[in-house]
Amino acid sequence: MPDDQITGLRERKKARTRAAIQSHALRLFREHGYDTTTVQQIIEEVEVSESTFFRYFASKADVVLSDEFDPVIVAAFREQPPELSVVQALRAAFARAFGQMTDDERSVQTDRMELVLSVPELRAAMLDQFASAMGLLAEIIAERTGRARNDVLVRTFAGAVVGAAMAAMLAIVEDPSSDIAETLDQSMACLENGLRL
User: Fold this and answer.
1) How large is the angle between the packed helices 86-99 and 69-78, nearest 10 degrees?
2) What topology is assigned to 67-197 in CATH?
3) CATH number 1.10.10.60 is the correct assignment for the domain at 1-58
């Protein structure tokens, strides 16, 4: 078997293991509560070793907070044609990342969002995630616009995008039947239109 096929197989197996851990953990959190569910219970449920769990997630909170969207969004953003504005390129990147989700993946994301908003420990940790997301967005926006990453306009724009994503997240938790990609696109369209009400 060629090396690239072996690598691809290995990566798919890792993705399946990671998804299984997260899926089982979210179910346990729903059934028993986040605070009362232990890492040990998750490990037993998924039938993996402790070292395997911690290879994929740094902590119990990380099971809820982490996802695989950042690299997908960054790659999709960088592929957008230069004639698109920054917000148009971001809308297209978000549409690619979130528009291809299966029903199961949408359900997992909704569960994650509900947990983040309902568990104080996770809400607090979410602030660090938002700061990281702003930093990542500032980096790719600066790259596209030729501005400095720490330019106040770049940071402000990145913060506005994170705010739009947060607004979409709140809307999805309030109405779990709503489509994640569509709701996020509505928030981004609001930014593109200059936040006019």
Assistant:
1) 130
2) Tetracycline Repressor; domain 2 (1.10.357)
3) yes
Per-residue pLDDT of the chain (197 residues), as tens digits, is 555 555 567 777 887 888 888 888 988 998 898 999 999 999 998 888 888 889 899 888 988 888 777 888 888 999 999 999 998 998 999 888 888 878 877 777 888 888 888 888 888 888 888 888 889 999 999 999 999 999 999 999 899 989 888 888 888 888 878 888 888 888 888 888 776 65
What DSSP letter does each residue of 45-88 carry, written as one string?
HHT--HHHHHHH-SSHHHHHH--SHHHHHHHHHHTS-TTS-HHH
| DSSP state, residue 194 | T
What is the pTM (predicted TM-score) of this model?
0.73
Q: Is 128 exposed, middle or buried (0-12, 13-18, 19+ CB in 10 A)?
A: exposed
Cα separation, 169 vs 183, in Å, equals: 8
